[in-house]
């Protein structure tokens, strides 16, 4: 964790190991998936970071993520299995992920007072308790759900706290 920004230190290391280990081998386990909004955010982040020099060509990371996005669009799906990503696309996504806030917490945790769902961030008691053990894809599923619900205080009453994270 970068002490200055509150974001993860980098795309490599623990986050990448966790991302790779979250894949299941077809024995009945859950396959990790990426939502379309995460792919779009990663593509846009890379486009800002590595703009096209000529207005036509794209950075290798943008191309890798765009291939995954095209597959998602072709399948007419809102999400894609992580196993469908090339190693370059996975690395590019993890680089974007490393820039995202570590958790949705806004330091108003009502699960400590016995609520099953935190009023501050929208996570369940189990999600709050086990957050450090979740891999990047599991965390993004939670982020997607709480963002879509939009009922947690981080999205309304205390939106300024959510904007800082």
TrEMBL record:
Residues 14-26 have a biased composition (Basic and acidic residues). Residues 1-30 are annotated as: Disordered. It comes from the Bacteria. InterPro entries: DUF1289, DUF3717. This is Fe-S protein.
